[in-house]
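pls read this protein.

:::
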Amino acid sequence: MRLYSGSSTSELEELAEKFWNSPDKLKNVLEELGCRGKKGTQKNRERISNLKESITNRLNQTSDRRRTSEDPSNNETEVLKRQLQDAQRRAETAEQKIKELTAELDRKRARQTHSESEELWRIVGLASNCPDFVFDAARKAYRKKHHPDTMHGRTEAEKKAAEVKFKEIDNAFDKLYGMRPR
């Protein structure tokens, strides 16, 4: 019979904390967590997995203490071996999580770079597959036509606005030039 079947994950976490020094009650909480399966969000499944691991480690510690106190011939090295194995499992889990997060970060960076590149091509008004001579000609023509020093007879505000716009587009040309394959 499941004692905590109606409990939420948060409530089970609270129960585990409350019964931390009571192995029999912790086993009941662990049993309920084992029945949770693959339901819920990824975050909730991770919480359940972490809680199960913590409770299992705690139960192992208490059983190790009991065995050591009951059987003086039980060697401390066995306890240390189990603790080392637990630490190795946690390290492997952490390494896997790091790999997953790194891959996700790389995917996000690739999407960001691609969208940034598209935005730069839109700013300069060229297609991304244009030949080098078109790219160079467009940049030269733009610089010649829109350079702030060629704005004779304009107000200071218009000159400042033209300078800001010129720098923005010239910066876009610079970035695109660096991104283009040679």
